[in-house]
Design brief:
The complex is a heterodimer of chains A (676) and B (255).
Chain A (H helix, E strand, L loop, with lengths): L4 H13 L13 E6 L8 E10 L2 E13 L1 H7 L7 E3 L2 H4 L8 H18 L4 H9 L2 H16 L8 H23 L4 H29 L6 E3 H17 L7 E7 L3 H10 L13 E7 L7 H10 L3 E6 L19 E5 L10 H4 L2 H16 L4 E5 L2 E7 L4 E7 L2 H4 L7 E5 L7 E5 L3 E7 L5 E6 L7 E3 L3 E10 L2 E8 L4 E7 L4 E2 L3 E3 L8 E8 L2 E8 L7 E5 L9 E5 L9 E6 L4 E5 L4 E4 L7 E4 L4 E6 L6 E6 L7 E6 L2 E7 L4 E3 L6 E3 L2 H10 L4
Parallel strand pairs in A: 3-6, 6-7, 7-8, 8-9
Antiparallel strand pairs in A: 1-2, 2-3, 4-5, 10-11, 11-12, 12-13, 14-15, 15-16, 16-17, 18-19, 19-20, 20-21, 20-22, 23-24, 24-25, 25-26, 27-28, 28-29, 29-30, 31-32, 33-34, 35-36
Chain B lengths: L20 H19 L10 E9 L5 E9 L4 E5 L5 H8 L4 E2 L9 E2 H19 L8 E6 L1 H15 L6 E7 L5 E2 H9 L13 E5 L14 E2 L3 E4 L14 H8 L3
The chains are: A alpha+beta (676), B alpha/beta (255).
Chain lengths: 676, 255
């Protein structure tokens, strides 16, 4: 099973939810199953099972396990003393590993857990328990300690640890006593705490020595801290996975949730003898992966979990270094994720955030699998239409773009459309813009703007994708792809409200999901049919030169004759050349000399162009998690390169926060603060 | 005998230096710039401001890692620290919540990870500051996340050791808890919550209620210092942590 880019955004949302509050929010159409969380898991590890469908195969229900951490608990719990490689026990590897019995390992880990529990907040376990009533946690520590001290199975390797552990228990009790009997006496608490922490400080070395003494063989090694955390929920996971018996199963992890997910992927991979996983197949998706094991673990993982994918955003610094220098190695097939942080203010916490990953993955999926946002030039203005939240069409008007780069724009809700369609737009001279969009109650709405918006004209067809082109309001061509895969061609007269009978165009893709774009060069009309499967060829239909009003498909070209023609935008006057975006998000304008100028842009992308003033003006807009405009101004026949439009004040369409990143704005506030 | 007060009592304390929303916004931008310096990505600073010095710590492999900067203009000087960037910084610095009594401020208990990071750059920063002719220019300390903790420690250090720097205000954003109540918070806040002569009187801890980092490490042994300035609101960058400096900048925008 190959990596599915259209599934990645949904899976990322599920993965990142495991490090949030429980019960976790589920993507639309997904059902939450067993949840595993709570204060008894000292590391803050938490997980949940869920089921639902994925875009790549919406007819099949799949099951998923997502693992994460309660961050406020995890960070104090984990420590550098826990970051060392530890042999992955045989009971995880299903008999392929080395290193002792499961019972022995469990015992050792309990001892480790007991050593780590106090570290969760030095002194807290006693003090916190005494002051805040966390007696349950305190009892757990004591129980773990007693079992470790009393159980002969840890002999002889735990001798050193026992030597440190006994005094620890005693000092912890002293601390509890001091906290209870002399509450509020700083000196007594400090004294008790100091003794206690001194004991704690001795433990890491003892623990390391204990682990080293019991290490045998050269099997794969994993991070001790993350493995210990995983063992805290392992039993619960094996109990919960029965719901996925015989089903396709995904193991997911984001950021600090990825390390235990990598272990779980091995633990639950099917086809091994002991233990026997009930799932039919297993895929693993890691996002912003932190390495959990050594290269031996990575190669073992590649063998046992061949369908593991690690999506890494280049600007996510958290997992980037210096893991390899510690002997750690990433697992899974690396899937680079590109995307531009739309803000000049850098923020690594945002760059590692699950919702940024999801957004970029959605952008990527949108880029490859859905039509472009609609953009159209009208005179010196540029109109951009995108799908906003709740299927609202959003419109931005950028004025004076080509004249002086002064930008005025504000999102406006224009109406509601259905499903995952996006609107289509066309220019009608200097002041008029046409908008077409599927409407939720059926039909395609076509709207004319010439200073103000006219009412919707309804074309009675349920469309999944629309495209339009026009020479006047009385002469509009609209092509709609229906949910059933029919390609229908209409002529509209918006002045009289007349809509022609539909004419069917042969669909070379049968009933595959499909989008359509219309492009007009002089009097020639081109329809571009693009399947949602990016690997499938694009078909271009050229209408006869002077009978394009009478839609007869004259030529059909298939395949991807040029690498750029993944995304077609507008067509340069004269010969039908395209502004095009390639699969790697580069925009190209083939020059007469054959030298393609390219520039990397963010996605998804809308392209618009006009040929006013005796030359070609092309504009490309990259719409990312927020909004960013990237303009390519081509004045006459001269190339002016890429200009990023000056950051301006705009309303974040998601959060509604006013953001102004301009230098002028920054200076104004600094001036008010007396800093300028 | 001193009883441990609720943290919220700090917010109502008197302030010797009033909170300045414009200053907070600009210092948050400076804090963000320290991330840019680490990543060697472009900066956006107010006109007339520039980075005049950077300071570095040596990681376990001997690499020099940028952790903060001094920014100057003709009107003021700012010492800014960045927050955690890498997993290794999380493990070595943020996760090291052992108590530590620093050499530079004896008798006071602070988090060992923060102290270790601070000590690694302390002298370099002081060398830089010693070389600056302040004149009438004030010195602002600021930082986000781990950087907020470092700014707090720097403020405590300069006060404890009678440094001659004209520290006028300290603004931290999304700072974790830095030290113990029993010693450090008492010292920083001036025993009674925010003594007008204490460091807290000119220190503002800007925190979003949903920012998970401000909950680390758990109380009550470790304690926030300074005056709390709560920052309500949500942004598209919140994710599950509500911690990014970008979101702070958005919500601090006084326009």
């Amino acid at each position: 099973m190959a990596y599915q880019s259209q599934d990645a955004s949904t899976l990322c949302a599920i993965a990142s939810a495991a490090s949030g509050p429980f019960p976790p929010a589920m993507p639309s159409g997904w059902t939450l199953g067993t949840q595993i969380s709570g204060s008894s898991y000292l590391s803050g590890i938490q997980a949940f099972f869920c089921s639902g469908t994925l875009p790549s195969n919406p007819s099949v229900t799949v099951y998923a396990l997502s693992i994460g951490f309660n961050r406020p608990v995890f960070f104090p719990w984990y420590s550098s003393a826990m970051q060392f490689l530890y042999p992955l026990p045989a009971y995880i590897l299903g008999g392929q590993g080395s290193s002792g019995s499961a019972a022995f390992d469990e015992q050792r880990l309990m001892l480790a857990a007991a050593r780590m529990a106090p570290v969760s907040s030095p002194g807290d376990l006693g003090l916190d328990a005494a002051i805040s009533g966390g007696e349950e946690l305190a009892r757990e520590l004591e129980m773990l300690g007693r079992r470790a001290l009393d159980d002969a199975s840890v002999e002889p390797d735990a001798a050193r640890a026992r030597g440190a552990f006994g005094p620890l228990i005693r000092d912890w009790r002293s601390l509890k006593f001091a906290a209870r009997s002399r509450r509020g006496d700083p000196a007594a608490l400090q004294s008790a705490m100091a003794a206690y922490n001194e004991r704690i400080a001795e433990l890491p070395q003892s623990l390391r020595a204990m682990v080293a003494a019991t290490t045998t063989g050269s099997g794969p090694n994993v991070d001790f801290g993350f493995f210990t955390a995983y063992t805290q929920i392992r039993t619960a996971l094996w109990n919960g996975i029965t719901v996925a018996s015989g089903q396709a199963f995904y193991v997911l992890g984001h950021n600090i949730g990825a390390p235990p997910a990598q272990i779980a992927a091995i633990d639950f991979s099917p086809g091994r003898s002991s233990p026997t996983s009930p799932v039919a197949s297993l895929q693993a998706y890691y996002f912003g992966q932190i390495a959990v094991g050594d290269s031996n673990f990575a190669s073992t993982s590649a063998t046992i979990v061949p369908n593991a994918y690690a999506v890494q955003y280049a600007d996510d610094y958290v997992p980037s270094q210096p893991q390899s220098e510690y002997g750690y190695a990433l697992t899974g097939q690396q899937i680079p994720l590109s995307g531009t942080n739309p803000d000049p203010y850098d923020s690594p916490w945002w760059q590692q955030a699950g919702n940024l990953y999801c957004q970029f993955l959605e952008d990527q999926a949108s880029f490859l699998n859905t039509p472009t946002p609609a953009a159209v030039m009208s005179g010196g203005d540029l109109h951009l239409f995108v799908r906003g939240s709740h299927d609202q069409i959003r419109h931005q008007r950028v004025s004076g773009l080509l004249r002086d780069s002064r930008v005025w724009y504000a999102w406006k809700e224009l109406g509601t459309m259905s499903g995952d369609a996006v609107p289509a737009a066309a220019s009608l001279g200097d002041r008029r813009v046409l908008l077409a969009a599927p409407l939720p109650l059926g039909g395609v709405g076509v709207r004319l703007f010439d200073g103000y918006w006219h009412r919707w004209h309804i074309v009675p067809v349920m469309a999944a994708s629309v495209a339009l082109s026009a020479t006047s309001p009385a002469d509009v061509v609209l092509v709609a792809v229906t949910d059933e895969g029919e390609i229908l061609h209409f002529r509209l007269d918006l002045e009289s409200g007349a809509v022609s009978k539909p004419v069917r165009i042969a669909n070379p893709y049968d009933r595959e999901p499909l989008s359509v774009e219309l492009h007009r060069v002089d009097e020639r009309l081109f329809a571009v049919l693009r399947p949602k499967d990016a690997a499938r060829p694009i078909h271009t239909i050229a209408y006869e030169d002077d009978v394009w009003r009478n839609p007869t498909m004259l030529t059909e070209s298939s395949g991807q004759p040029e690498p750029h023609h993944v995304r077609l935008g507008s067509i340069v006057r004269g010969e039908p050349r395209f502004l095009a975006i390639s699969a790697d998000r580069r925009l190209a304008i083939p020059e007469s000399g054959g030298d393609d100028r390219t520039a990397l842009i963010a996605a998804p992308v809308a392209l618009a162009a006009n040929d006013a003033a005796g030359g070609m003006h092309g504009v490309a807009l990259g719409v990312t998690a927020e909004l960013r405009l990237v303009a390519n101004l081509r004045d006459g026949h001269g190339w002016r390169g890429w200009n990023e439009l000056p950051p301006g004040r705009f309303e974040d369409p998601v959060a509604g926060v006013i953001r102004d990143r301009s230098q002028r704005h920054l200076d104004e506030i600094a001036r008010r603060a007396g800093l300028i | 005998m001193t009883s441990i007060p609720a943290e919220t009592t700090l917010a109502a304390a008197p302030a010797a230096v009033p909170y300045n929303a414009n200053l907070a916004y600009t210092l948050a931008v400076f804090s963000s710039a320290t991330y840019n310096l680490y990543q060697q990505s472009p900066l956006q600073l107010p006109t007339g401001w520039s980075v005049t010095s950077q300071f570095f710590y040596d990681d376990v492999f001997g690499n020099s890692i940028s952790i903060g900067a001094v920014l100057e203009s003709s009107t003021a000087v700012t010492l800014a620290f960045r927050g955690t960037q890498t997993w290794q910084e999380m493990v070595i610095t943020d996760c090291n919540v052992f108590p530590s009594t620093p050499d530079w401020m004896q008798y006071y208990s602070i988090l060992a990870g923060f102290n270790s990071m601070y000590v690694s750059i302390r002298q370099a920063v002081m060398n830089i500051l010693n070389g600056i002719t302040f004149g009438t220019r004030p010195l602002y300390l600021t930082g986000h996340s781990l950087g907020g903790a470092l700014a707090t420690l720097a403020a405590a250090d300069y006060a404890a050791n009678a440094a001659s720097y004209p520290v006028t205000a300290v603004y931290t954003f999304g700072s974790p808890r830095v030290g113990s109540y029993i010693t450090f918070a008492e010292y920083y806040n001036g025993v009674t919550p925010v003594n007008p002569n204490s460091i807290s009187s000119y220190t503002y801890r800007v925190a979003r209620p949903s920012d998970v980092v401000t909950l680390i490490p758990p109380g009550p042994l470790y304690y926030h210092v300074s005056q709390l300035e709560t920052l309500p609101g949500t942004t598209a960058q919140d994710g599950l942590t509500s911690h990014s400096i970008d979101s702070y900048i958005s919500l601090l925008d006084p326009a």
